[in-house]
Amino acid sequence: MTIEATGVSAPVGMITAECEKNTIQIFSYENRQLAGYLYNRFLNRGAYFSSELQIIWLMENLLDTLAFPQADVKYRSFSRSGRSTQKVEGNSMKDMITKEIDQPDDRQEKATFVVQVQFRRNATWQGTLQWVDKNQTRKFRSTLELLMLINDAMENGRDSGPSWAGGE
């Protein structure tokens, strides 16, 4: 099995719950715009992203290709050919996976998150988000809530924001 538009192959019959886990390393957060790398056990290297849309697009394509967890709804489209999985914001998935960070030695990682998508119901994701730097975990019930938790962590820097304060 190959991940569409990448040529990356996943071992057939060996898909485990580990493929639910995606590591997001954020190197830049300027004007509420995230940039960094997305890592998954089934990718040979990190997939570069420069926006929240690209994070979602990369993870969704990966989950669709692995069919784990399976989506409970099919996407609708304006075109007859169905959902386009080849391009987002002018980049192919292969370009994003092989893109190198400019001056990687000069960049300091700002935050690391582990996203575990457990379900894809009601056309969105449900799962857990672990903020590795703070050793805190929160559950999310939608993709929007996931993005809000990441933004809250980035906005408040080292201080835990309201979404991260206290327990779950």
What attributes does this structure have?
168 residues; two-stranded antiparallel ribbon; alpha+beta; 6-stranded antiparallel β-sheet; single chain; globular; disordered N terminus
End-to-end Cα distance:
37 Å
- The tally of structural domains comes to 1
Number of E-type strands: 10
Sequence stretches where pLDDT stays below 50 over 5 or more residues = 1-6, 85-90, 100-106
Strand order of the largest sheet: 5-4-3-8-9-10
Query: What is the C-alpha radius of gyration, as a whole number of Å?
Result: 16 Å
Q: Mean pLDDT, rounded to whole units?
A: 77
Percentage of residues in helical conformation: 10-25%
Main sheet makeup: 6 strands, antiparallel
**Coarse morphology:** globular
Oligomer: single chain
User: What's the SSE pattern?
Assistant: EEEEEHEEHEEEH
Number of helices: 3
Beta percentage is: 25-35%
- The helix/strand class is alpha+beta
